[in-house]
């Protein structure tokens, strides 16, 4: 007898002699199996079925009693089916249950193939997630309602709870030695899922309520599933979503708002004095289900509620809405759960949750920052852009977003309405925003440069501190690292890494750069804004130009560099201080240390003869081998002491409607 046949024979014999296993459902066995059972031979035999059912993409099909014995024909069938990936799903607990089983088993039976199968299953969940943060019922995607974001029967919540346990290193997942990079991916997926939940919460007449069983993956709106499952608000599916949100240790104000609104909706939509009467025949078969009114009956909620007024409704397979359960046919009336009491668990836990949140608010000193971004799941968000998008528009008070160390490979935009934001990194060296966009990659015509920034700031009163921002395109033409088009913007203790066009200082506003490292090749500091650079290192990576100001005509100040050091790569020997992108360019260097890579002439007119009369290029008390005032272009200037006083920070950065001493930048430290 072959080894495979011997195994199947013994496995079948074992199950035929062990009624204990056969009397349990797969779900009950996974969730309630004892440590002794997971450490025993039965679990070790069952796992072979689990591995057989796992498809090559890492997922599992649904409604499979994994603990049941398999015939030889079924084993061969499953082996062939593995490669199709058809039927992999998160519906009815599929994939989540199998991963829980593998994690529990691995604690006692540490075989690498079990761990590998677990990690493969996690990869399946990560791949199946939409960019919006939701999960479809099936992946690979199937046509029809299967592709909707699926809360039905807790599909997405099951996935989210599993990911939450992994990222928080809960037992037994802490036994699996999951790589840090994988945990980071899991944390990102979880946070994206939370944001999807918040986006799909239904707004009814301007008031947040609950969720539908499924939502459109693009519009986030309630969506239809089967013919009798119309777009609606669901008491059953909404309850576990709220319980998941309540389990978040430090919820953002938006999460708190979502919970408060959902709890109020549960209160408003509950059915009082209503009881479901079920009648069974002698064999225990359900033969009748009726709704009766009786005093002091426990609260119930309808599974389907009208999107406009929360009124319960019912449907037969014809999809026609009925107002009463008695109006639909017996098959659907008896064969479907039209009511639920699950929201009572939310209302039960709400007071304790409320007290916990109240204490957090009473002692805000425990939370140094309003919002935390972290890739390990310890923050409110896993991506910087999600934190920005969650911020209130035009807030009266400053919002501080703390970003923990990590490489955040994302394109970040601070929208015009995201005013009063401070983006603070954990450390300048290790908190990194990185993206790859350049002129050719964008391919939007002659203005492609302006679409390339890794970090784009359009909002006033913005502060970035302790960050590295990099455009990883390399020396491939125009590729902006940081673009700032607003006013009262401070960039403090940051590294701006790039090549051509690293820093774009756009607009007519005031910008302040302090203790920053800025590197690049051609025109790597350019634009029209008034910008003051203090104690910065300006590093040239090739022979070219540092600045290309485009100061508008009539503007009092352009670029001012004070107490900065100008350095270069070892082979760089011919660098200009600046050339005029537009002919009224203004650039001043004061008390700066210039290495020998700065050529004696220092300034270039960009083949614009007019610029020699209209630009204002000047220096005062610079030093170093690159400072050769007598050799400078004759149309540039060396300032007198009196003239240099005009370029004090307090004057250059003063706002027109401010008193001179009201230095907005002083608060950005």
Automatic annotation (TrEMBL):
Domain called Pectinesterase catalytic: residue spans: 370-648
GO CC term, one of those recorded: cell outer membrane
EC number: 3.1.1.11
Pathway membership, UniProt: Glycan metabolism; pectin degradation; 2-dehydro-3-deoxy-D-gluconate from pectin: step 1/5
Keywords for the protein's UniProt record, in alphabetical order: Aspartyl esterase, Hydrolase
One of the GO biological process terms: cell wall modification
Catalytic activity: [(1->4)-alpha-D-galacturonosyl methyl ester](n) + n H2O = [(1->4)-alpha-D-galacturonosyl](n) + n methanol + n H(+)
Pfam families referenced in this protein's UniProt entry, alphabetically: Pec_lyase, Pectinesterase
GO molecular function, one term: pectinesterase activity
InterPro entries noted in UniProt: Pectate_lyase (IPR012669), Pectin_lyas_fold (IPR012334), Pectin_lyase_fold/virulence (IPR011050), Pectinesterase_Asp_AS (IPR033131), Pectinesterase_cat (IPR000070), Pectinesterase_Tyr_AS (IPR018040)
Enzyme class: hydrolase
Active site residues of this protein: 523
Hydrolase keyword on record: yes
Family as reported in the entry's similarity comment: Belongs to the pectinesterase family.
PANTHER family reported in the protein's UniProt record: ACYL-COA THIOESTER HYDROLASE YBHC-RELATED, PECTINESTERASE 53-RELATED
Name the UniProt record assigns to this protein: Pectinesterase
Source organism per UniProt: Saonia flava
Top-level taxonomy: Bacteria, Pseudomonadati, Bacteroidota, Flavobacteriia, Flavobacteriales
């Amino acid at each position: 007898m072959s080894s495979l046949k011997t195994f199947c024979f013994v496995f079948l014999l074992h199950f035929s002699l062990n009624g204990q296993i056969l009397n349990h459902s797969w779900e009950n066995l996974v969730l309630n199996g004892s440590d002794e059972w997971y450490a025993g031979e039965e679990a070790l035999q069952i796992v072979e079925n689990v591995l057989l059912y796992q498809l090559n993409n890492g997922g599992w099909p649904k409604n499979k009693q994994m603990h049941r014995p398999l015939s030889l024909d079924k084993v061969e069938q499953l082996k062939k089916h593995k490669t199709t990936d058809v039927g992999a799903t998160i519906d009815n607990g599929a994939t989540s249950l199998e991963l829980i089983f593998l994690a529990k088993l691995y604690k006692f039976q540490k075989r690498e193939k079990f761990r590998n199968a677990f990690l493969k299953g996690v990869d399946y969940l990560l791949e199946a997630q939409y960019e919006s943060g939701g999960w479809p019922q099936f992946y690979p995607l199937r046509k029809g309602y299967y592709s909707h974001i699926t809360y039905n029967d807790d599909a997405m919540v099951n996935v989210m709870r599993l990911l939450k346990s992994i990222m928080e290193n809960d037992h037994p997942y802490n036994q699996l030695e999951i790589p840090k990079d994988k945990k980071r991916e899991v944390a990102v997926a979880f946070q994206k899922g939370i944001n999807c939940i918040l986006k799909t919460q239904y707004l009814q007449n301007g008031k947040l309520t609950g969720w539908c069983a499924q939502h459109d993956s693009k519009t986030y709106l309630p969506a239809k599933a089967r013919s009798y499952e119309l777009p609606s608000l669901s008491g059953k599916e909404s309850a576990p979503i709220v319980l998941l949100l309540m389990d978040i240790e430090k919820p953002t104000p938006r999460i708190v708002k979502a919970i408060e609104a959902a709890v109020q909706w549960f209160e408003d939509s509950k059915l009082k004095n209503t009881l479901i009467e079920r009648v069974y025949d002698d064999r225990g078969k359900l033969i009748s289900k009726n709704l009766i009114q009786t005093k002091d009956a426990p609260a119930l909620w309808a599974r389907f509620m009208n999107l406009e007024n929360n009124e319960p409704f019912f449907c037969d397979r014809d999809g026609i809405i009925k107002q009463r359960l008695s109006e639909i046919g017996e098959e659907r009336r008896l064969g479907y759960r039209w009511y639920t009491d699950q929201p009572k668990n939310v209302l039960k836990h709400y007071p304790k949750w409320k007290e916990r949140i109240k204490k957090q608010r009473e002692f805000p000193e425990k939370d140094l920052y309003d919002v935390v971004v972290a890739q390990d799941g310890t923050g409110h968000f896993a991506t910087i852009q999600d934190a920005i998008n969650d911020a209130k528009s035009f807030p009266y008070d400053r919002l501080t977003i703390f970003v923990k160390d990590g490489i955040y490979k994302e394109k970040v935009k601070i929208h015009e309405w995201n005013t009063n934001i401070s983006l603070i990194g954990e450390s300048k060296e290790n908190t990194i925003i990185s993206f790859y966009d350049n002129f050719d990659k964008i391919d939007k015509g002659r203005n492609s440069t302006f679409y390339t920034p890794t970090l784009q700031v359009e909002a006033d009163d913005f502060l970035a501190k302790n960050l590295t921002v990099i455009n990883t395109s390399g020396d491939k033409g125009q590729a902006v690292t940081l673009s700032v088009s607003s006013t009262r913007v401070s960039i403090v203790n940051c590294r701006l890494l790039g090549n051509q066009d690293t820093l774009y200082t756009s607009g007519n506003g005031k910008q302040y750069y302090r203790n920053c490292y800025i590197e690049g090749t051609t025109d790597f500091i350019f634009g029209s804004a008034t910008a003051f650079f203090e104690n910065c290192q300006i590093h040239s990576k090739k022979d070219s130009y540092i600045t290309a100001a485009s100061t508008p005509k009539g503007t009092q100040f352009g670029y001012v560099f004070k107490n900065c050091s100008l350095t270069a790569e070892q082979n760089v020997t011919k660098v200009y201080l600046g050339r005029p992108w537009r002919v009224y360019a203004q650039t001043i260097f004061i008390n700066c240390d210039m290495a020998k890579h700065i050529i004696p002439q220092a300034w270039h007119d960009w083949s614009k003869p007019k610029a020699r009369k209209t630009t204002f290029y000047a220096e005062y008390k610079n030093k170093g081998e690159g400072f050769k005032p007598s050799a400078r272009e004759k149309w540039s200037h060396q300032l007198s002491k009196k003239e240099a006083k005009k370029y004090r920070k307090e004057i250059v950065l003063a706002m027109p409607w401010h008193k001179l001493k009201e230095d907005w930048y002083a608060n950005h430290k």
